[in-house]
Amino acid sequence: MAAAVKTSGGFCNTQQQWLHSTRDLFLHGSTRSNAKECKSKKTKKPTSLCVKATSAKVELDFNDPSWKQKFQEDWDNRFNLPRITDIYDLKPRPTTFSLKKQRTPTGDEDSTPMDMWNGYVNNDDRALMKVIKYSSPTSAGAECIDPDCSWVEQWVHRAGPRKDIYYEPNEVKAAIVTCGGLCPGLNDVIRQVVFTLETYGVKNIVGIPFGFRGFFEKGLKEMPLSRNLVENINLAGGSFLGVSRGGPKTSEIVDSIQARRIDMLFVLGGNGTHAGANAIHDECRKRKLKVSVVAVPKTIDNDIPLMDKTFGFDTAVEEAQRAINSAYIEARSAYHGIGLVKLMGRSSGFIAMHASLSSGQVDVCLIPEVSFALDGEYGVLQHLEQLIKNKGFCVVCVAEAAGQVSELSVVLAFGFFRSIYH
């Protein structure tokens, strides 16, 4: 999705506003305020902008012929994955995770022979972030880095099992902790982590109760986990381990990890939890502890880059459709009825957009990624008035962070549509 940038110092050209993706801005770390006007030059392509974008570590000047190389180098550095071998000089050992037993015979004579096939992911494998080359920033959904929408390859590491591991499974103690609020699918993730660890041969798996508090509060003891214990927890909601917000200092958590002799920590949580997991990771590196911290994003908002979909998102969309259906029935049953549904999403409109498309009953969907005007010839209010005249009712879906949401609510609440009824 793209959002129209309408700032005086923003990305735009002499003819039209430059569309940008808010997710793209987050990934590149670029700032709109860095766009600087410059004098027009005599070129075949009329332009009046000289744009500079600041990424996390380097400032890009798009007039510099080597800006693409600098961008890619900075991209690779920022997405460089930390490894346990950065601290310890460890020798790799063959993985205990076998894919040959799970391979489905295809009967194809040209397929790779079973004795040569392993199905593991190579460390040098990369996944392409974007597959569309936009020819212009005015193209529908264009996500551009520079004003000319130049093509820049953006690669990220490919996930999957490797043929080498750096832990002895029989000696590993793995811990799972769920923090923050509840999210649909938490128990599914706990269950699958336990299943996968056992597939690798890890026997000592524990659950930390009630978030990070389980590391220090008296009376909260770690819970042994096994396939038999978690077999059916996916059938229940909530968190099998319990959740809580906040917790002790990072140093105290790492002290507890060290005392419990935990080798792997799987942290399930949102923004704050991930910040805590990153702090735990840094403290472990500082102490040179052989501990792997694995963070699993927990959000129904689906606003995490590099992921196809976050767990809990599908459930949120499904439940949101119930509210939309109710609003549709109410609006259709009333004279000149207007159904207004406000959905969660923090700073993204994925839930609102997918729920609106899935229901097929929404006339207007307002999301943060796309700016809109309430008044004017092409404003939302005029469009709604026309819908009322043509259909007799309408349904509006609003993401919680959509611009001017509060103003729209006031307009609806105080009956500014009275002209429709007279």
If you had to describe this structure to a student in words, what would you say it looks like?
Catalyzes the phosphorylation of D-fructose 6-phosphate to fructose 1,6-bisphosphate by ATP, the first committing step of glycolysis. Keywords: Allosteric enzyme, ATP-binding, Glycolysis, Kinase, Magnesium, Metal-binding, Nucleotide-binding, Transferase. The chain is α/β, with parallel strands linked by helices and 422 residues long. It folds into three domains: 1-157, no CATH class; 167-297, Rossmann fold (3-Layer(aba) Sandwich), CATH 3.40.50; 313-421, Phosphofructokinase domain (Rossmann fold, 3-Layer(aba) Sandwich), CATH 3.40.50. Helices cover 29% and strands 16% of the residues. It has helices at 22-28, 67-78, 186-200, 227-230, 250-260, 271-286, 313-333, 350-359, 380-391, 405-413, 418-421; strands spanning 3-4, 19-20, 35-37, 49-54, 59-61, 93-94, 126-128, 155-157, 164-165, 173-178, 204-208, 223-225, 264-269, 292-297, 338-343, 364-366, 394-399. The strands form six sheets. It has a five-stranded mixed beta sheet with strand order 12-11-10-13-14, sandwiched between helices. Strands 3-4-5 form a three-stranded antiparallel beta sheet. Strands 15-17-16 form a three-stranded parallel beta sheet. A hairpin with a 4-residue loop joins strand 4 (49-54) and strand 5. Helix 5 crosses helix 6 (271-286) and helix 7 packs across helix 8 (350-359). The protein is globular, with a radius of gyration of 26 Å.
